[in-house]
Design goal:
Length: 156
């Protein structure tokens, strides 16, 4: 039987910090793997450990994790006023919290297909290709608006 690690097991390793930095910039696993000279599977495994250590349910939500307490206000500050519908904004808020389409559908009492369509429309309107890009952009917009970056709070 393996002994449980204690102490620094929740601290990120240097490689995990490096991958976290790239993830929070919205870079895909494939691009991270190419940049670091490792396999996509290795990036995914590091991502899973980062999610566990950061208590995040989705890698894409890590960039916005520092905003969760004030997310609705942060989104109001960072998102263009009339570009997104109220329903799309609610879906974005849930995506930033790391919820899956099914979880968002349950929370908003709509179908998961409707959630997927809202996500698709948001990505199209903002010219993005992934939820990771979206959450990274939102975190960046909040930082520009004076909402502190997660690395400023945690020293990561």
């Amino acid at each position: 039987m393996k002994a449980k690690r204690t102490g620094s097991s929740s601290a990120l390793t240097p490689r995990q910090r490096e991958i976290l930095e790239l993830v929070t910039r919205g870079i895909s696993n494939k691009a991270i793997a190419a940049q670091l000279g490792i396999s996509v599977d290795t990036v995914r495994r590091h991502g899973a450990r980062i999610k566990q250590k950061k208590s995040a349910s989705a890698t894409s939500s890590i960039a916005c994790q520092h905003l969760w307490a004030t997310l609705d206000n942060a989104l109001a500050v960072s998102l263009p006023d009339d570009l997104l519908t109220p329903a799309e904004t609610r879906v974005v808020a849930c995506l930033c919290r790391g919820l899956s389409s099914k979880e968002i559908a349950r929370a908003l009492e709509i179908s998961s297909r409707t959630v997927d369509k809202h996500r698709e429309h948001v990505l199209h309107k903002l010219g993005m290709h992934s939820t990771r890009q979206l959450t990274s952009w939102i975190a960046g917009q909040c930082a520009k608006s004076g909402i502190p970056d997660a690395s400023e709070k945690s020293g990561v």
